[in-house]
Design goal:
Length: 306
């Protein structure tokens, strides 16, 4: 699990327990998104969902919905269908969330893992929308199997900067770090979360970095910010020069006469043309910046720090 860092995006999660929320004040406090409780089990609909969804979106926050599961008593498909029926008329930016914790621990690990996968798959089938899973750090370590690693993780672990490791996920997309936070616009306590910037960009559409081509599947992260998508060619990762340059605030141009790219007016001699775009070695970029380059093969990411 990675630690929180300065590039993370601030989000919260709410239910009827937060009462009436002044979402304009929440947005002004620097909160960019909210997960809103929709349902629980097969019979509970959160009475504040509709108001929270409408007002949060109107205030400019990106939103998502979550469902509190009761696998110890209910069928996965029935709970999935109940959730989808409740949120079907509402636009969600973030993936739909399965919240699994509490009495779910009464279900044997293998059966619980299959139950969660069935819920996630059924919601995806019914909505055509991505899904993810929320759970506590200890719960993830003790009860959730590797099969669930195919879905993004929203992890809860309070009082730490880095959540506990578990054998199923290597990284989190969202990290709930306290249940007793305060935010202007909400009376009383509220859960505070941070979201990885790349995850936020992917689902919010805000300045989203997108692959140039189908082969660009490797994320290039510069100082904890997604800068580009690259590809592996003969053991070397190459990424589009324009993407990397613009992410660093540089001006990238192409000179047709010299057939050479320029960064802030300086020619770049070492490059490769791929499908008409100039690609450069990520290791060369790190060297140019005077930084360090590391490779995460499991998650297909290259990290540059300078």
């Amino acid at each position: 699990m990675q630690a929180r860092n300065a590039s993370n995006v601030n989000v919260i999660d709410v239910s009827h327990h937060q009462g009436i929320v002044d979402w304009d004040k929440v947005r002004a406090a620097g909160v960019a998104g909210a997960f809103i409780k929709a349902t629980e089990g097969t019979g509970f609909k959160d009475p504040a969902m509709a108001t929270n969804a409408a007002n949060a979106a109107a205030a400019g926050l990106k939103i998502g919905f979550y469902h509190y599961a009761h696998p110890e008593t209910n069928d996965a498909e029935a709970e999935a269908q109940f959730f989808v029926a409740r949120i079907s008329d509402y636009k969600a930016d973030f993936p739909h969330v399965l919240d699994v914790e509490g009495d779910a621990s009464k279900v044997p690990s293998a059966r619980l893992t299959n139950w969660c996968a069935a819920w996630l798959q059924e919601v995806e089938r019914l909505t055509g929308h991505d899904t993810m899973i929320y759970t506590g750090a200890s719960f993830a370590k003790s009860y959730l199997g590797k099969k669930l690693g195919a879905w993004p993780l929203w992890i809860a672990h309070y009082g730490v900067n880095k959540p506990m490791d578990n054998p199923t996920w290597d990284e989190w997309a969202v990290f709930q770090y306290t249940s007793t936070g305060t935010v202007n616009g909400i009376a009383g306590s509220v859960d505070l979360d941070v979201m990885e910037e790349a995850f936020y960009q992917k689902y919010s559409g805000a300045n989203a970095v997108k692959p140039y081509g189908d082969e660009d599947t490797i994320k290039v992260v510069v100082n904890d910010k997604l800068a580009a998508y690259g590809r592996n060619r003969n053991g070397t990762v190459y990424a589009p020069l324009r993407q990397i340059g613009e992410s660093l605030g540089a001006v990238v141009t192409w000179d047709a006469a010299t057939r050479m790219p320029y960064v802030n007016g300086v020619p770049v001699a070492q490059f490769t043309l791929i499908d008409g775009s100039a690609y450069v070695s990520v290791r060369a970029v790190g060297s140019f910046l005077g930084g360090t380059v590391s490779w995460d093969g499991k998650n297909q990411k290259v990290y540059i720090y300078y």
